[in-house]
């Protein structure tokens, strides 16, 4: 019903920047909750940034002040601007969409790899 395609990952040196993009297609609604998650090898997937409500954006404490999530509802695009990257940011980053009032209904992209070297 919803297809998500991430792009923008790659190799970057510590202190550098990357901008990730998520293109959403299919049945996308303006009320959908959209966000970014990441998963490093051997670790659980964790929330990076998310539009959790009309007036609230949630960021992981580890990325707060360095990453910025944004969206273009007209184009069904979600972005993640990542600045001051650290080696510990290395992970596969996933775009996520969840229905506002339908618990358990969510969609994932295949992910894009971000590698930060020392």
How many angstroms separate the termini? Answer: 40 Å
Total helices: the number is 0
Mean pLDDT equals 95
Main beta-sheet annotation: 7 strands, mixed
Helix content: under 10%
Number of strand elements: 11
What is the oligomeric state here?
Answer: single chain
Give the class from helix and strand content and strand pairing: mainly beta
Series of secondary-structure elements, N-terminal to C-terminal: EEEEEEEEEEE
In terms of DSSP E residues, the strand content is over 45%
**Radius of gyration, Cα only, in angstroms?**
14 Å
Which outline best applies? globular
- Low-confidence stretches at least 5 residues in length (pLDDT < 50)? none
Task: Describe, in plain words, how this protein is organized in 3D.
The chain is mainly beta and 118 residues long. Strands 2, 4, 5, 6, 9, 10 and 11 form a 7-stranded mixed β-sheet that branches. It has a 4-stranded antiparallel β-sheet with strand order 1-3-8-7, with no helix packed on it. It is built from no helices and 11 strands. 28% of the residues are buried. It starts with a strand and ends with a strand. It has strands at 2-7, 10-13, 18-26, 33-39, 46-53, 56-59, 67-72, 77-82, 91-98, 106-108, 112-117. Helix content is 0%, strand content 57%.
């Amino acid at each position: 019903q919803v297809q998500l395609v991430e792009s923008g990952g790659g190799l970057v040196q510590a202190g550098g920047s990357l901008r990730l993009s998520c293109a959403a297609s299919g049945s996308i609604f303006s009320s959908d909750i959209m966000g970014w998650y990441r998963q490093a090898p051997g670790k659980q997937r964790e929330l990076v940034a998310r539009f959790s409500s009309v007036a609230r954006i949630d960021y992981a404490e580890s990325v707060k002040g360095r990453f910025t999530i944004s969206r273009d509802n007209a184009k069904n695009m979600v972005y993640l601007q990542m600045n001051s990257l650290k080696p510990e940011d290395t992970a596969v980053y996933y775009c996520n969409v969840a229905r506002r009032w339908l618990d358990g209904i969510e969609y994932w992209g295949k992910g894009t790899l971000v590698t930060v070297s020392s």
